[in-house]
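Standup notes
- DV: blocked on the single-chain target, sequence here:
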Amino acid sequence: RGTKDVYVSVPRARLTRGGEFPVGTILVKAARTDSGITLAAIMRKIQGVDPAHGDWEFVEYKRSSPDAAFATDASLTGATCWGCHQIAEDTDWVFTPLDP
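- DV (later): unblocked, structure below
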């Protein structure tokens, strides 16, 4: 629910043919409601971290209110994220591919 903004650390000019993101790419999804940002999900492409999944590493931070601190735990990393991202394998595991 709410609005999701996605930010990427790589300019389009650095994307490879086919839209794969280069090693070193960081994507951040910030989800917000009327009360503020409640979730920050981060994907980092690190060479060798997970070759079976395009070398993406996931971590998600949540908070219950705008005044609360963001926190994460094991349930907000890895396998939890792959549950959704597995259907995006053809677009480098990212739901919104960028065309080079």
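- Follow-up: Strands lie at 3-8, 26-33, 36-45, 56-62.
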